[in-house]
Structures are given as structure tokens and as C-alpha cells.
Amino acid sequence: MSKKNKIIGLVFFNPSLRTRLSSQKAAFHLGCDTWTLNIDHDSWKIEMNDGDVMDRHSQEHIKEAVGVMSLYCDILGVRTFPGLKNRDSDYKEILFKNIENYSHVPIVNLESATRHPLQSLADAMTIEECRVPGNPIKVVLSWAPHPKALPHSVPNSFIEWISKLPNTDLIITHPIGYELDKEITKNTNILYNQEEALKYADFIYAKNWSSYTYYGKILCDDTRWMITCEKMDLTNKAKFMHCLPIRRNVVAEDAVLDSYISLIFQEAENRIFASKAIFKRILNASSCCI
Ligand code: CP
Questions:
Q1: Are the CB atoms for 118 and 109 separated by under 8 Å?
Q2: 21 lines ligand 1 (CB under 6 A)
Q3: Which domains, ranges and CATH numbers included, belong to the chain?
Q4: Confidence (pTM)
Q5: Ligand 1 atom with the shortest distance to the CA of 110
Q6: Which pLDDT tens digit goes with each residue over 231-251?
Q7: Which among 16, 74, 194, 272 is placed 20 to 30 Å from 207, CA to CA?
Q8: Residue 83: CA count within 13 A, CB half-sphere
Q9: Strand 107-109 and strand 203-207: pairing?
Q10: Measured from the CB, is residue 109 less than 6 Å from ligand 1?
């Protein structure tokens, strides 16, 4: 089916480099056009709450904003980070679900409060490309230090996607107190000793996240959790992975990132093919319904 004359709208409530540009390139490959809106900079101030008396700073309600934007595209990609204040509201994905309800077209998750599926699809593709076919592998998701409180979307999605790969042993390692949602980690081993976890690993995926229990809080700033060449030497000649953006010499040291063992660019490139696969599938499905 031709994707010509189809338009993919990309709406960002938060910053992005890879998601925005890889989505644009994916759409270009499919013959689609795109438009992008950065809500904070390009648009009216949006009111998110139902029933609010809008007599202050917000000029447009999310109902009208999404309803109208979805008239101008065939797929609407949306990025909405969590507030990291109210766990219940973030984990119910209230904003993302509201956007789905107000839209007239299919929504693609460009990273919501608790999930980043296109990143994990790209990460899964990268692992599959780099492993020896048929051989079992050990993948370690390691918490790493970061000066800011970060969402759980990348580790949550990574656990869900990578635990489904065949012949793959996924281990999580983090300081005590950084346990993620048990519903997501219930079938995955957790080790509090990072060096023990890294032993014999084939892939190391570094990522910071804030506390789930003390929601959105930073509990540990122990720089010894940074990924170094010394730590990579404990592994089975593992490859290093990170979704980017990464704080150099905080999450991982320069020598790891600049080494041949780093897959960060391959992951970023695979974001194009992950987006392309999802956009194509949705457009094909939509054309069947018309
Ligand atoms: N990995 C990722 O989603 O990058 P951006 O935040 O730059 O889109």
C-alpha cells in the first residue's frame, strides 16, 4: 500500500533528539510527510485537568488541542514524561490515555510516563543483530548514577521486551532501594552486587532511574556504580548499551563509550527501523478499515 499523502504528527511535551529525528526519517522512508509540535515552545499553554476554570495561564485545553491535531495527521506520535510526584497517576498513564481518548487517529507512544516501547524495540533489534544466533546470552540491566531524578520508562520497557527474547538470561542490578515495580520485575533476578551481576555478561545496558518506592526521589549518588573499562573486564567481552542521551563520566566513562564495544550508535540507528515497522503496521491496518 502506498503511504504517499499520509501524514505523521509528532507532538512533544518534553525534549527529544533521537525519537523526533528517527521518526521523521522513518516517515520519509515510508513516503509519509511529518509535522512536529513542541508543546512548550511552539504552541499555546495547554490545560491538562478536566473541569478547570481556565482563567489563568493556560489558553487551550488538551481536549481541543489533541482533537484538532489529530485532524491534521493519520498517526499521532506523542511524548509525555511523568511528573514523578504522583506514582498512582503516572503508572495509570492518565495523560497518555486521555490523549488516546481525545484523538481521532491511532497514537504511537514516543515515551510516556512509564514506557518507551520504540526504544526497547530498537534495543531488542540491536541485541539480536549482535549475538551469535542460537547461543544463550546473559544481559545485565545496571542502574547507574545521575544527578537528576529520571523516569522508569526505559528500564520498565527494557525488562518487558528483553525478557521475551529467546535464550536470554536477563539480570537487573541496582543499589538497595531502587527496586522497580514488582509487577514488571517479578520474573527477573535482581542482584545488589553490581560486580557479581556483571560476571560473564554478554550485554551491559546502563540506565539511571529514580526510586519507585520513594517515588521520584534520588536515594544514592554512589559514583562507584558508573560503568568503567575495569567493570567491563569482568564480563564475557560484553557489548555496552545505553539509550542516550548519556552523561559521560557519570553513567559510563569515556573509554567505554568511545570503544568498539559500545553499541550506542547502532541502537540509535535502529530507532529508525523500529519506528518504520510500527508506522507501517498501523498505516496498513488503517487502510484495511477504510
Ligand atoms: N533515547 C531517546 O528516546 O532519545 P531522545 O530522548 O533524544 O528522543
A1: yes
A2: no
A3: 7-114 (3.40.50.1370), 117-267 (3.40.50.1370)
A4: 0.96
A5: 3
A6: 999 999 999 999 999 999 999
A7: 272
A8: 13
A9: unpaired
A10: no
